[in-house]
Design brief:
The chain is mainly α. The protein has a single domain (12-150), classed as Winged helix-like DNA-binding domain superfamily/Winged helix DNA-binding domain (Arc Repressor Mutant, subunit A, Orthogonal Bundle). The chain has six helices and three strands; from the N terminus they run H-H-E-H-H-E-E-H-H. It has helices at residues 12-35, 42-53, 60-67, 71-84, 105-126, 131-150; strands at residues 58-59, 87-91, 99-103. It has a three-stranded antiparallel β-sheet. Strand 2 (87-91) and strand 3 form a beta hairpin. 11% of the residues are buried.
Length: 152
């Protein structure tokens, strides 16, 4: 399905915001479709990817901040990942009130199986942009996120 810029609103700011919003909805649909037949959800996958590429074990607090997920929702995600055998909680040696999370061998095996097809999908979606456009898009999204923070 091809998309063209169509002015649905009389305000260009609203039009731009709705374009970002609509893109987010379409991305969410793609992610749901991709993860539908896999063991883990998109949110669980994101948790595991952060754990895989972290330089050291992360706390739930670290994950919550990086994923912009409420701590109580994250607890449920981690509980389900632990039941699947994909992550392990360990008491932090520095502060026993906190847990450090690590990927298990089973979790790493799952990521090895899914990460390639996931990256192919990301490449397919984002290949509509040149490298310089991708860089510019990233800069624009960071500015939008800043505007969202300022609007609180």
């Amino acid at each position: 399905m091809g998309f063209n810029k169509v002015n649905h609103f009389d305000d260009s700011l609203h039009e731009a915001l709705m374009s970002v919003w609509w893109s987010g909805i379409l991305l969410k649909r793609q992610a749901r479709r991709f993860f539908r037949d896999r063991i883990a959800s998109e949110s669980q996958f994101n948790v595991m990817m952060l754990l895989k590429y972290a330089e050291k074990p992360l706390s739930q607090q670290n994950l919550s901040e990086r994923l912009l997920v409420d701590k109580s929702n994250l607890t449920g995600l981690i509980d389900s990942l632990e039941k699947l055998g994909f992550v392990k909680r360990r008491k932090s040696p520095d502060d026993r009130r906190f847990y450090r999370l690590t990927l298990t061998g089973k979790g790493a095996a799952f990521l090895n199986e899914v990460e390639g097809p996931y990256r192919e999908l990301v490449h397919k979606i984002m290949s509509v942009y040149s490298p310089s456009e991708m860089e510019h898009l990233t800069e624009l999204m960071v500015r939008l996120q800043s505007g969202l923070e300022d609007a609180k």
